[in-house]
Every structure is written in structure tokens, then in C-alpha cells.
Amino acid sequence: MAKTKELSKDVRDKIVDLHKAGMGYKTIAKQLGIPQSCKTCEHVEDSTHWLQIEPLTSTVQGVTMFRHRTPKGRYECTVSGLRWVCDRDVILKYHFRNWYPYSQLLIDMQYGQGGPLLDITMELGELEEVHLPHFVCLGTNPSLRNEMKILHVEEHGVSVEEVHEVTRFHAKILHPKFSAIAVILSYIFFGNVDVHCDVVLYMAVKKATVISRLYMLLRNSSQKEAVRDREKHQVSQGYSELVLSSPKGSLKLNSWFAVKNPHSSSINPEKIQLLPADTTPSCCKMVMRNTGVDIEMELIGDDERTVWRDMVPTDEYIPETHSTSAVLGGRASS
């Protein structure tokens, strides 16, 4: 695994424990929220020296809330990728907001979503800086950073703020005033933008059959929470969430990809689409006989190029040989 950025002792200890339990370093990185690499933008500058911390979580009226209390320092939330700088003790909480109610408003403003819509509240203190996550890949078009703004959704309307600096995965603003807040991108570029995404699989073994559902999600977006909410009943019925390897490079938003699994008896639909953040992610259902073979999967673009490939080994999905809890939230790339 690549050298991490000033991980806390708790996170370092967790890495050691998970590795001793047989989990690969790539799996651990994904489970702990350490950002995935993208070869398309690996030359783009990113800010460094962030202490990664896990939030305290709670559920209020069905909404998952995340809360951090931190002393002076530079921090990154392992759930959302949100970063902040404070020069004294602060307490902040946030939750993901759905982009859908603001879709038409963004179109009227000639903008598209560039990252998650986060509703952030300061319970104590103020921040010197906040670095909002974005899912836009700057590798093919670095000038896109000049087309990014910050959207504030307030009780009586919306406002747009200039970005102080855009790095590989974040947009920085100084002395932020919070509301629901997000990175947005000029609409003229939004329809053809390259983005970072993740692939998630929900899987269950039902006697002689393996049933799985594969999703493509924009990275650090509210789509992951939406999918977890959609799948929570299935998880209670024995399904497991597996965060698979990410595509090695960026992909075009709104593109279609054929799903291939050589051992599957049924794939429905046969293609899935990488959709914007205000849309429920595209999903395909795969059914295969439980014959004790590794599950091999590919995503192939319209140009016939394989953009993603991964494999779930037999011992990760057969309950008799592998604990379900060990694969929840992450697994090793092939």
C-alpha cells in the first residue's frame, strides 16, 4: 500500500490488526477510506499532511449524521473525504444532502454537480480552511479547475463563492461559513467531464446460487449512502457489501458500460451507466451457480476497451470458508 498521510495511531493499529487477520493492504485502504489512485491524474498536485480520522455516527430521523471533535491540526474524514484546518478545538457535524431537489436550479444557473452536497454545522469554534471533496478528474483537462465554484444552499436561496484553490481531489475555501455546501462545475463542461468512481457489489449465497448486484458510484458522493439505504433490507437478509477495486483511470460521466461475468447465467441489464450525483446509481443483477469458482467481472466501454476488471475469490463468498464480517466494506483488488 502506498505510504499514507499522517495516519492516527488508532488507524495505524487498525491497519496492523486487519493485515494480521489476512486482509490485503489495498482492501484495508478502501475500508479505512484512504483515497484510491487514478492513473489519469497522478501528475496533478494534491495537498498533503492530513490526519485521517473516523467520525462518530448517529441516525436522526433516518438520516446518518457524522460528527468530529478535533484540536488544532489538519484533518480528513475517512467517510466523506472532507478536509479541514483549525487552529483551536472545534466540533463539526455534517450529513449528505440529496442533489435531486436542486437539479433544475443548477441547470438554470448553468452548473452541474462537482462533488457531494454536504450540510455542515459548526457546534464549536471556526475553521481556518475547508477542503470540499470533488469527483472531477483534472488529468485530461487541468483548466477545469478554473470552472469550479462553491454552491451554498441557504434557507432563503443560494449563492456562489469563488474557490481559493483546486487540488487533485478537493476545492479549498478560507474561513468558511457553512450551510449546505458543494463543489459545482460550469455546465458547458459538465456533460463531457471525466470523473472518479468506485465499484460496489452486494452479494449473497442462496443454496446453489450466488446472487449479486453491481453498482457504479461517483467517488465521495451521496450515492453510496443512497445505495446503502436501498440495500439495507437485503443486508439484513444475508447480503454483504464488497467495495471492489476502482477503475485505474477516470471515466466519462453518463457513459455506458457492458458488464461481463463468464460464469453468470444471467446479467440484467447487460449494461450500466455512470450517472450524475442527483440520480440513483445504475445497477445490474448477476446470477450464477455456486460451483466454487472465483467470480470474475469486467466493465467494457462502447469502444470495446476494458475499463475495469476485478475478481472475488471463492473463499470470500462461501460462508463455510470465510467470515462475512471480514469482507464487509472492502476487499483486495485482483
Automatic annotation (TrEMBL):
It comes from the Eukaryota. One of its GO terms (cellular component) is cytosol. GO terms for biological process: innate immune response. Its main location: cytoplasm. The keyword Cytoplasm applies. Keywords: Cytoplasm, Immunity, Innate immunity. The keyword Cytoplasm applies. It is found in: Cytoplasm, Cytosol. Residues 46-331 form the FIIND domain. This is FIIND domain-containing protein. It comes from Coregonus suidteri.
